[in-house]
Specification:
By secondary structure, the chain is an alpha+beta fold. It is built from 18 helices and 24 strands. α5 runs antiparallel to α16, α7 packs across α10 and α17 runs antiparallel to α18.
Length: 757
């Protein structure tokens, strides 16, 4: 069993930021740090004091983390980026908000003495003496110290202070993992109340020394314990009184939710997984079926999370298509009007959205990527709404004459028609590129809708059912916000955003099969109607080919894909060729294209497919691929062995024990990462436990008030059997959690550490 912690982070927007540029504006972006380790960088929003990001992240991290900090920065092309301010949320603050922290937070000034990180290894002893006892402090080593020098390291030394006496260690040059092994002694009077202070500093020859952090030891507790040894986390210097004026640095709107889960061994979740899988395999509906009951008892605010967890669980069991088919039937059985089909935020709609993001992101990139890149590169002014046309933004059509409004509208229509035509052509050519499981799911959806709404008057309904997901809930959102779908590394500027919005509207009109209702909403979209009508015919032909996949073809496609391990992560990485020598110029890097599967990590000089990648996503994929490796080292050297010593800790033995412990680094979740089946089962159990009272009420209603013990245990014989089994499984899991050592509260390992305020 293991404890898992995760953060759901949404960085919404900022307001009233101070101007950092001579233009009276700023170019803000955010950096997120967990315990001073950077994990997220948002896109830069140019020339604004009220930026909007709207970026969402799922972060997995060790349960021992202390705080998450949001830094708002101003990007500068020629000089160092300016720090505007920060918002810091401690673990305790997040734990006190079970539903998550949400709202505006004032930015605070960033003080260098508060930006500390790392740990220090100390041995503390109380020794007997001839006249008085002695306090012995052995400063052994430190790890993960903040780099304060331009060379990416520090020159650390330690200052030990007690009752007015100060002693210092030697200086270790160019290391964030120093070893001292030096001992200091102080006279200790009985009943002494003064604390022992151990401070880490970075030595500088010219400027003042930089503070690296400190540990304050309660001597009275040490007197009782007699000795203590361990790693102590370095704390900021908060002894100085500082005036933090709220509001003068602006505010940041955040949504942050902490989740702590104790994940039991896989065997504990097997009854729950088998029960849910059995329900999906049956594929029938009734008052006692579990999937409809789960939807009925799931509130709107958590439906997306439940849908994603269920979808991932069934993906791992190879039942995603069957699960979605069951939801399609459930939705169709309660829908009487064809034009309202899959328009609500039902479990079917949410699950299908998650499914397309999990299984179709690479496909989306292949179809949309070139069109989105062209829109960004052209930066053309495009506008169809006459009330919003600004001729001065367009320029001149000739040497002297500015363009008229009619010319602007016509050129805009031509540009949008070209983009829409290119997109539809790319989509029509992508039938074979669409993943087999996606094609099979759309085929099942098409067939179910056609069975439910037969007849000529509903001829377009099966097509609209497919496009409601493919166009309206997948392609259109990606066109409007390409950064959020990893199609671009930066947000679009105002001009490009307008082009993307108009293109997304056109795609929606095509997806709606050019209905009179969609045309009536915005009459100024009329210039695109010829292309939209042509696109409807193209789209219907594409869907016909897309769903024309027989069972044999589907199995052949899946068998072909299974011959090779599917890629977990692929894309470009920059390899530094100078091995730390010389300036970090662009010519010092070599670009290679890597592919990571569950079996091998390989690379080539040219890409086989386009994919947007970030370093944290690579680290996440590598971590998850190797998470079950029994040969993982307990410690490692974060530096390199150069000359006759390690650059990190200056050890002279190349095969010596690592100076830093191997631990689960903070990593970002990514759709292509391997699925964590046990975690998904735990999250489903946690949700079902929260609605257990409603499930009991439903069980008593179906069983006529009988007790659960009178209900037969075999599934499928009576409508209430599955629900009774589910309640028993929840009870067993609850007992397993109660008896789990990881679920019981543990004491802090370093009880001598006290924060000084």
């Amino acid at each position: 069993m293991a404890k898992r912690s995760s953060l759901s982070i949404r960085i919404v927007e900022g307001k009233n930021l101070p101007a950092k540029d001579i233009t009276g504006s700023s170019d803000p972006y955010c950096i997120v740090k967990v315990d001073n380790e950077p994990i997220i960088r948002t896109a830069t929003v140019w020339k604004t004091l009220c930026p909007f990001w709207g970026e969402e992240y799922q972060v997995h991290l060790p349960p021992t983390f202390h705080a998450v900090a949001f830094y708002v920065m101003d990007e500068d092309a020629l000089s160092r980026d300016d720090v505007i301010g920060k918002v810091c949320l401690t673990r305790d603050t997040l734990a006190s908000h079970p539903k998550g922290f949400s709202g505006w937070a004032h930015l605070m000034e960033v003080d260098p003495d508060e930006e500390v990180q790392g740990e220090i290894h100390l041995r503390l002893e109380v020794l007997p003496g001839a006249r008085a006892r002695r306090l012995r402090c052995s400063v052994l080593e430190a790890r993960d110290l903040a780099p304060k020098d331009r060379n990416g390291a520090s020159d650390p030394f330690v200052r030990v202070r007690y009752k007015g006496r100060t002693q210092e260690t030697s200086i270790v040059k160019k290391s964030c993992y120093p070893r001292w092994n030096e001992t200091f002694e102080f006279e200790l009077e009985e009943g002494a109340t003064e604390a022992l202070c151990v401070e880490a500093w970075d030595w500088d020859l010219v400027s003042r020394n930089d503070f690296l952090g400190k540990v304050v030891i309660d001597v009275q507790r040490l007197w009782a314990a007699q000795q203590e040894e361990g790693w102590f986390r370095l704390q900021p210097d908060q002894s100085k009184s500082r005036q933090h004026v709220k509001g003068n640095l602006g505010s940041l709107q955040l949504e942050v939710r902490l989740r702590d889960e104790t994940v039991l061994p896989s065997s504990c979740y097997q009854p729950l997984v088998q029960l849910l899988c059995h329900e999906v395999k049956l594929g029938v509906q009734g008052p006692g079926q579990l999937i409809p009951l789960i939807e009925e008892t799931t509130s709107t605010e958590c439906r997306q999370d439940v849908a994603t967890n269920l979808l991932k669980l069934f993906l791992g069991q190879g039942l995603a298509k069957d699960f979605l088919d069951l939801l399609f039937q459930l939705e169709l059985s309660r829908t009487s009007e064809a034009n309202t089909l899959f328009r609500s935020n039902s479990l079917a709609s949410k699950s299908m959205e998650s499914f397309l993001k999990v299984a179709g992101m690479r496909y989306l990139h292949g179809v949309l990527g070139p069109i989105i890149n062209k829109v960004f590169e052209e930066k053309k002014y495009v506008e169809l709404d006459p009330s919003k046309v600004e001729v001065k933004d367009v320029g001149c059509s000739g040497l002297h004459r500015p363009q008229t409004e009619a010319e602007v509208l016509e050129q805009s229509a031509q540009t949008l028609r070209a983009h829409l035509g290119a997109l539809l052509s790319a989509l029509c050519r992508s039938v074979r590129a669409c993943p087999a499981v996606v094609r099979a799911t759309f085929r099942q959806l098409f067939r179910r809708v056609r069975e439910r709404f037969p007849g000529a008057q509903h001829e377009n309904v099966p097509f609209i059912a497919v496009t409601s997901f493919l166009c309206l809930r997948f392609f259109s959102p990606a066109i409007m916000s390409p950064k959020l779908f990893h199609l671009r590394e930066r947000h679009a500027d105002a001009r490009t955003s307008r082009t993307l919005l108009l293109l997304a509207k056109a795609v929606q009109n095509v997806g709606n099969m050019d209905t009179p209702a969609s045309r009536a909403k915005e009459a100024w979209m009329e210039p695109l109607q010829p292309t939209v009508r042509q696109g409807v015919a193209q789209l219907k032909d594409f869907i016909t080919k897309l769903v024309d996949i027989e069972e044999k073809d589907e199995l052949d496609l899946q068998r072909t894909l299974s011959l090779q391990a599917p890629p977990v992560k692929e894309g470009p990485l920059f390899i530094h060729r100078t091995k730390g020598k010389g300036p970090l110029m662009s010519s010092s890097f070599k670009k290679l294209y890597f592919s990571l599967t569950t079996e091998v990590l390989s690379f080539a000089k040219t890409p086989s497919s386009k994919c947007v990648n970030e370093l944290n996503q690579w680290l996440s994929a590598l971590r998850k691929v190797s998470i079950n490796n029994t040969g993982l080292l307990g410690s490692y050297h974060p530096g390199v062995f150069r000359g006759d010593k390690w650059s990190c800790c200056h050890q002279r033995e190349k095969t010596g024990r690592g100076c830093d412990k191997t631990r689960s680094r903070v990593t970002l979740q990514e759709w292509n990462d391997p699925l964590d089946h046990d975690l998904e089962a735990q999250l489903i159990y946690r949700h079902l436990l929260s609605v257990e009272a409603m499930l009991w009420e439903k069980h008593q209603e179906l069983s006529g008030g009988a007790e659960a013990s009178t209900v037969p245990a075999s599934p499928g014989k009576a409508p209430e059997d599955s629900l009774a089994q589910l309640l028993r499984v929840l009870r067993d899991l609850h007992e397993a959690h109660s008896s789990s050592p990881a679920s019981s509260p543990t004491s802090e390992p370093n009880c001598l550490l006290q924060l000084q305020t």
